[in-house]
Specification:
It contains 13 helices and eleven strands. The protein is α/β, with parallel strands linked by helices. The strands form three sheets. It has a six-stranded parallel sheet, sandwiched between helices. Strands 7-8-9 form a three-stranded antiparallel sheet, covered by helices on one side. A hairpin with a 5-residue loop joins strand 7 (235-238) and strand 8. It is elongated, with a radius of gyration of 25 Å.
Length: 382
């Protein structure tokens, strides 16, 4: 018989994480750890992180607590080391060498806590010719070849927001790395530094594509391959009302169902007749332009044709499937993606809204037993 859910807020309940405030993939990685139940304390700097978003709406700071410390002051680094001594994981996203200059680098932290997992999130990595160069998601994708795959063959590469680099190639790899290192630390009593570089992660994401390239089944030109928009039955098509439908019936029986519902089964029975791909694309384009997105959604509803409407960010939470699964939730007046993945024994949830800078300093001082962190005007101060 399956056991019921255990008390707590996820499988990482009891794990303590220090996050040195930054922007982009570092905060998102710390949010993932917080979503999974870790007690994440974000060390915010006076004046904020400099990206201009209202802290009340910054969802990457949900499920966290915040303390306010000036790392350039005499006391700031000492308080971070106090927290690191009591933590399991520390996450920072400075350029190489900055944490060391501030006095909170790996050597200083590991000297206080030899079991600490010190996670470093950068674009270029801790070493290499570009390590100290400024950069953002788009540049990291560009050098790894990943950006070159996205878009039409006769147009410039398309920017995939900052999802592929910052979050997939950065945050997710940092989280995998620090959790793997945490397992090692608990088994062997040995902490370590995790060097998570977006260039490494973005390159690693394309492992299958590199294999296909080596096998001769992928052309090193965007918009000419099975999964990059080159295939007429794997892409998007406009509808009569300006909407779009996403099409992906790669398997034979799914393709047969797709062309049948579209009214093209007899005209294009062989999906691998590459000589007719342009003709097939033109026919599919013409057919989709005859009806609205809602009408085509109804046509393909309940089928295995692998066709779905392309929804906007505001439309997505209302889709019946996503609503049934509670893929999006509302908390603190904000609609947001729910934590993922899901766990049968240790369920996760949005427990708190975005942490306000410094709002939890007194509580963290008490919970983590760092009395020197307590604000001078706190009622708990002796």
């Amino acid at each position: 018989m399956a056991k019921g859910p255990r008390p707590g807020h996820g499988p990482l309940t009891g794990v303590r994480v220090v996050e040195l405030a930054g922007i982009g993939p570092g905060p998102f990685a710390a949010m993932l750890l917080a979503d999974l139940g870790a007690d994440v304390v974000r060390v915010d700097r006076p004046g904020g992180a400099g990206i201009g978003i209202d802290p009340a709406s910054d969802l990457t700071n949900r499920n966290k607590r915040s303390v306010l410390l000036d790392l350039k002051s005499d006391e700031g680094p000492a308080r971070v080391l106090d927290l690191a001594e009591r933590a399991d994981i520390l996450v920072e996203g400075y350029r190489p060498g900055v944490a060391e200059r501030l006095g909170v680098g790996p050597d200083a932290c590991l000297a206080r806590n030899p079991k600490l997992v010190y996670g470093r999130m950068t674009g270029w990595g801790q070493d290499g010719p570009l390590a100290e160069r400024a950069g953002h998601d788009i540049a990291y994708l560009a050098l790894t070849g990943t950006l070159s795959m996205i878009g039409k063959p006769d147009e410039a590469p398309i920017v995939p927001a900052n999802l592929v680099g910052d979050y997939a190639g950065g945050s997710l790899y940092l989280v995998v790395g620090v959790l793997a290192a945490l397992q090692h630390a608990r088994a062997h009593g040995e902490g370590q530094v995790v060097d998570a570089a977006i260039v490494d992660g973005a390159a690693h994401l394309a492992t299958m594509i590199h294999g296909m390239l080596a096998a001769g089944s992928w052309q090193d030109r965007r918009g000419t391959n099975l999964l990059d928009g080159g295939c007429p039955f794997y892409g998007t098509y406009a509808t009569s009302d300006g909407g779009h439908m996403a099409v992906g019936p790669l398997e034979g029986r799914f393709y047969a169902e797709f062309t049948g519902l579209l009214g093209l089964a007899d005209a294009f029975p062989d999906r691998w007749d590459l000589a007719r791909w342009d003709e097939l694309r033109a026919a599919v384009t013409e057919r989709f332009l005859t009806r609205t997105r809602a009408e085509w959604t109804e046509v393909f509803d309940g089928t295995d044709a692998c066709v779905a409407p392309v929804l906007s960010l505001t439309e997505a939470p209302h889709h019946p499937h996503l609503a049934a699964r509670a893929t999006f939730v509302e908390h603190s007046g904000l609609t947001q993606p729910a934590p993922a993945p899901r766990f049968s024994a240790t369920p996760v949830s949005v427990r708190g809204g975005p942490a306000r800078p410094g709002a939890d300093t007194a509580a963290v001082a008490a919970d983590w037993d760092v009395p020197a962190l307590r604000p001078a005007d706190s009622p708990d101060t002796p």
